[in-house]
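Study this pair:
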Amino acid sequence: MDRDTQRGLVFNIQKFSLHDGAGIRTLVFLKGCPLACRWCANPEGISPAVDLAYDPKKCIGTKECVRCRDVCEADAIRVRKDGKVEVDRERCTSCGLCADVCPSRALDGVGKWMTAEEVIRVVEEDGSFYARSGGGLTVSGGEPLLQAGYVVELLRKAQGRGIHTALETSGLCPWEDLERACGQANQVFFDVKTVDPEKHRQGTGTGNERILENLRRLCARFSGIPVIVRTPIIPGLNDTPAEITSILAFLRTLPRAVEYELLPYHGFGEPKYEQLGRAYRMRGLKPPSPEQMAALRKLAKESAHPGA
């Protein structure tokens, strides 16, 4: 991923969000993530390049259209027995030519290069909602700080126009990038999935030492920015009182108080894996029950960092 400050690879802009910062917000999702979380709900945000998604339910069939096959230079479009097409992922280069000509959008390129100014213009369309609700822009991913220069420019432009800014991060990034971005953020959401490095490696493909150190440095360096630590509750990984207690113990060692939220696992992203030609490794996993979430949230509230 390049470090261009003016252009970034965006895979979604979601308006009217109420759960990722104060008030009514516009969420800008950037592509690329250094983690490989087994439960990821946004698999289209993992790759730092444009992906090709295919939804066979939208395909009108080769009796009506073969435009995608005609333009594919990699010979990656096949015809199924039912007359619809399928993508040979081994051959596909994600060039996007097939998506450009697909009349039903069954084939769709996931990811669009946008300048910071283009994104801000979209964000500003809902300026009246921000003013009334105290909302604004939230930058998310993937891991947005893989495009750190672009994130800083987005947040800087938004703040320059009086828009409240928030950053969502996994914390797995160079400290210098996190520091620059937080210098332009009014609020930070920071994921802590587990404090056990081996469990973290099993669940995400990498250790958590840099993540925890970045959170500690963030709290020391930016004492005036609200920091909300989030833990996605994943059955079999961190859904026990002992796991939450260990995270809470770590949070109490931070230089200052932080807010703490628990988010239940859900499988809503599973259909996206099939459309991207990938396997979903958590198939069949049941979300934590409302009663389990209530008990864990009660534990978190009772054990909160003083002043949180």
